[in-house]
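Hi, here's the filled form for the chain we discussed.

Project: internal
Contact: R.S.
Residues: 88
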Amino acid sequence: MQVTDGVKFSVANTGPGISPQHVDDVFLRGLRGQSRGMGLGIGLAIAKGIVAAHGGTIGVSSDQGKGAVFWFVLPSESAHPPKGVSAS
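And the returned structure, exactly as it came back:
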């Protein structure tokens, strides 16, 4: 993804990756990965809501067995100025 007027944040890991049939579902509330930890499966859903509330986008790319890259893009202030402020 090319960012033309915003800031992109990303984090990569070297874990087991995400199977292709689950990549589109990782941001659904209650979905938990392969780990059987104490999580509730709501973290990525909350992250998606926060990013969306700020006018951004969020996503993931993964090759199973090779880790994953999670990213989000927030628009620059000039792209979405606060209400009552004109972009100049």
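Let me know if anything looks off before we file it.
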